[in-house]
Amino acid sequence: MVLPKRWIVERLFAHLMRTRRLARDFERRTTSAEAMIYWSMILLMTRRLARSRSQPA
């Protein structure tokens, strides 16, 4: 079924758009835009890791 995968992609885009710099096309080079995407995903993953470690096992 295609619908669940669509929601995964839309959730990813929502996380990326939370980083305000990625909401508009401010970057002149694609490498700097790519770096901003990596930075945004690193923030997301560190928040998830910190949240999962703070919960009791």
Proportion of residues in β-strands = under 5%
Radius of gyration: 14 Å
Ends distance: 34 Å
Largest sheet: none
Low-confidence stretches: none
Name the structural class.
mainly alpha
- One letter per element, helices H and strands E, the order comes to HHH
Count of alpha/pi helices: 3
How many strand elements?
Answer: 0
Shape type? flat
- Arithmetic mean pLDDT: 77
Give the proportion of residues in helices.
Answer: over 70%
Care to describe what's here?
The mean pLDDT is 77. The chain has 57 residues and is mostly helical.
How does the SSE layout of this entry go?
Blueprint: H1 2-18, H2 20-23, H3 30-54
Give the structure's gist in a few sentences.
The protein is mainly α. Helices cover 81% and strands 0% of the residues.
What features would you highlight for this structure?
single chain; 57 residues; mainly alpha; 81% helix
